[in-house]
């Protein structure tokens, strides 16, 4: 049996399923970077509102990064994840993945490939 909690998005008001019902279960939101806590934004957000809120928060943070501060940014200290999120880590252009500054900042250093959005 796959039980879920039904929650109400504190931003848009729609109902959505939360998978975080037991210690061994993790919700879909755990795939996102832990960049803010719920006390900043009310109760849980639906997947669309959560993704949008994360993207805004990340863009605000990335805008403060310079080449001088990129190496010591806080993104590289976040827990590593194997999931890439479209619109946050990358966007698609002509069928190709284009990595955004956030993806590079999480890596923690320049790879030397001349990436378009490299902050280093």
UniProtKB/TrEMBL annotation:
InterPro entries in the record, alphabetically?
A: DUF5522 (IPR040807)
Query: What is the protein's name according to its record?
Result: Cysteine-rich CWC
Which domain of life does this protein belong to? Bacteria
Organism annotation: Flavobacterium palustre
């Amino acid at each position: 049996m796959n039980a879920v909690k039904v929650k109400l998005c504190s931003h848009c008001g729609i109902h959505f399923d939360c998978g975080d019902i037991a210690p061994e279960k993790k919700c879909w939101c755990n795939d996102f970077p832990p960049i803010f806590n719920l006390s900043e934004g009310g109760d849980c957000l639906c997947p669309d509102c959560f993704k949008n809120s994360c993207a805004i928060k990340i863009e605000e943070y990335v805008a403060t990064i310079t080449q001088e501060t990129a190496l010591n940014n806080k993104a590289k200290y976040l827990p590593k994840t194997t999931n890439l999120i479209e619109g946050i880590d990358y966007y698609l252009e002509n069928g190709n993945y284009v990595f955004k500054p956030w993806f590079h900042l999480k890596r923690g250093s320049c790879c030397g490939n001349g990436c378009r959005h490299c902050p280093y």
